[in-house]
Amino acid sequence: MRTPVIIGNWKMNLAPSEAKALLRELRELDLDQSVEKGVCVPAIDLLIAEDILKDSDIKFGAQNMYFEESGAYTGEISPTMLNDIKADYVILGHSERREYFKEDDELINKKVLSALEHDIIPILCVGETLEERESNKEEEKVRNQLEKDLKDVKDSDIEKVIIAYEPIWAIGTGKTASSDDADCMCKFIRDYIKKVYGEDYSEKIRIQYGGSMKPKNVKELLAKENIDGGLIGGASLKASDFEQLINYKK
Ligand SMILES: O=C[C@H](O)COP(=O)(O)O
């Protein structure tokens, strides 16, 4: 039985004063304890998240990191810095990082391996563009990303990874993949893990859906066999929406 996992990705939103207010609101919510939950905040908000969430069961993490531990890498944060503040997660390979910051699979793979080596849970994002979907290339695209981004990830580490299937055309657009299509791609990912790592691991690994997941569609999406949670952008910025998402079983 996989524990559902719902994570907010704040993206480049909420300056420290706003972050403080939302985190304090989140901490006061009555959230379903059977759901793993967390927020991945901008780097400048990480210390605030550590402080405000420390006695709650809401975890937190970063939206990116570099793979080296320290050095002359202006503008980056490292896995050891995330360890120092006990961050639980790091989002890697988000389509916005791939598109706007030209991150390629080789770099993402180094980051995934580094996160695992430092006991930080990587939330690896994969997904196709609209053009790729319209030409029936979504499986090819996602398989290719998985092959490259998970290269050299050991059997003993694979179940720690969370994979987020995020069709790019559904991100921030209000268009959600149908629950059947989302489930079908999450199953495709699970089957890939089964082929490479075996059935045991494929049954344990958690696969999220991301792309305009909202209180109104969360129940239907998470009722699907292969969708174990959500990576939520816009709807994670409002406490009441985040509450409804986490409490989707109620
Ligand atoms: O990481 C989150 C996804 O990009 C989804 O964003 P969204 O919920 O605003 O569509």
TrEMBL record:
Residue numbers annotated as active site: 94, 166
Protein keywords: Cytoplasm, Gluconeogenesis, Glycolysis, Isomerase
A single cellular component GO annotation: cytosol
Highest rank taxon of the organism: Bacteria
Isomerase is among the record's keywords: yes
Residues annotated to bind substrate: 9-11, 172, 212, 233-234
Enzymatic reactions: D-glyceraldehyde 3-phosphate = dihydroxyacetone phosphate
Enzyme class, spelled out: isomerase
Cell compartment(s), UniProt: Cytoplasm
SUPFAM superfamilies recorded: Triosephosphate isomerase (TIM)
Keyword Isomerase attributed: yes
GO function term, MF aspect, one: triose-phosphate isomerase activity
Matching Gene3D superfamilies: Aldolase class I (3.20.20.70)
Family under the similarity heading: Belongs to the triosephosphate isomerase family.
Subunit structure: Homodimer.
Protein name (database record): Triosephosphate isomerase
Organism: Anaerococcus porci
Upper taxonomic lineage: Bacteria, Bacillati, Bacillota, Tissierellia, Tissierellales
